[in-house]
């Protein structure tokens, strides 16, 4: 079995990968149901920041702040996935928002998103996957 097909990211690699991207997926619990939301984000230090309108995503964060966030990328040769876990909170004041330096946070959709949410990351892990030929699954007799 080829053990080099999957490699764990180490050191600052996962953070560098997250900092090089702007699109991820927020996973959270909304009234007992798992939900995943695509979001544009910016890295604010060691935190994920995104804007959202009123609705299910914001309600989920306010009801249960424990979240996961994934940033991934697929190329012709392989894929990379970084998963962050932490606690999400709505930023309540303009002073708190200004502390985050979010000049790189831009919405892709022309909708009003007045709510700023930050994920305080407590855990991060990343893996790289190298694509290759599918293994021979023929049973050995």
Automatic annotation (TrEMBL):
InterPro entries cross-referenced by the UniProt entry: Pyridox_Oxase-rel (IPR024747), Split_barrel_FMN-bd (IPR012349)
Protein name: Pyridoxamine 5'-phosphate oxidase
């Amino acid at each position: 079995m080829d053990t080099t097909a999957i490699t764990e990211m180490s050191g600052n690699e996962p953070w560098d990968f997250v900092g090089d991207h702007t699109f991820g997926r927020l996973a959270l619990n909304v009234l007992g149901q798992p939900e995943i939301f695509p979001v544009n984000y910016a890295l604010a230090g060691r935190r994920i920041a995104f804007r959202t309108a009123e609705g299910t995503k914001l309600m989920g964060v306010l009801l249960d702040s424990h979240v996961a966030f994934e940033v991934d990328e697929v190329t012709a040769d392989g894929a990379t996935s970084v998963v962050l876990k932490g606690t999400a909170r709505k930023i309540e004041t303009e002073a708190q928002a200004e502390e985050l330096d979010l000049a790189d946070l831009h919405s892709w959709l022309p909708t009003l998103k007045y709510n700023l949410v930050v994920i305080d990351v407590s855990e991060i892990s990343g893996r790289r996957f190298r694509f290759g030929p599918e293994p021979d699954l023929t049973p050995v007799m």
